[in-house]
Amino acid sequence: MASGSGDEEGDTDGVAWRLIEPASELSKKRCRLLYSPLGHDADVCLFYVKGEFFAMDARCAHSGGPLCEGDIEEADGVLQVFCPWHDYNFDLRTGKSGTSLKQQVYEVKLEDGNVYVKHAGRLSLKPFLKT
Ligand code: FES
Questions:
Q1: pTM of the model
Q2: Which string of DSSP letters, residue by residue, matches 63-104?
Q3: What domain count does the chain have?
Q4: 79 is in which domain, residue-wise?
Q5: Residue 108 covered by a domain
Q6: Structural domain includes residue 10
Q7: Would residue 4 count as lying in a domain?
């Protein structure tokens, strides 16, 4: 796995590993919404399923449904989230759907007990203040 620059500053300074929080905290919930200063459409869902973290765009590629609120099911060894709005399914690992749509997914790594997501902008568990 290629490593990012480690630069945590700036909103659009290129793709880098973004420190989120210790895994011990993030694993307490099935999904956490990661806010992006780039706007609502750039927010990310961080799922914790079966001992593994997965990151994908938080708004459904169909019409923007909140994927963090979707059901998660495993079929034939494939973990999928089902959008709560129209029930489209997305593979947590690849973002592929049973439809022609695809959800953007992001690499996640664990380092020294912390979770990092590889993303083009900063990500935060708290909303960014609008300026
Ligand atoms: S908005 Fe997600 S399936 Fe329609």
A1: 0.88
A2: T--BGGGSEEEEETTEEEEE-TTT--EEETTT-BBSSS-B--
A3: 1
A4: 16-112
A5: yes
A6: no
A7: no
Determine if ligand 1 sits within 6 Å of the CB of residue 82: no
Is the distance from the beta carbon of residue 121 to the nearest atom of ligand 1 less than 6 Å? no
Residue of 69, 88, 90 to test ligand 1 pocket, by largest number of atoms within 8 Å of CB: 88
Separation of CA 64 and ligand 1 centre (Å): 6
| CATH code, domain carrying 33 | 2.102.10.10
The finding on whether 47 has its CB within 6 A of some atom of ligand 1 is no
Helices and strands (DSSP H and E) totals, the chain: 1, 10
Single-letter amino acid, residue 74: E
Q: What is the pLDDT along the chain (131 residues), one digit of tens a residue?
A: 444 444 444 555 689 999 999 999 999 999 999 999 888 899 999 999 999 999 999 999 999 999 999 999 998 889 999 999 999 999 999 999 989 999 999 999 999 999 999 999 999 999 987 66
Whether residue 131 is contained in a domain is answered as no
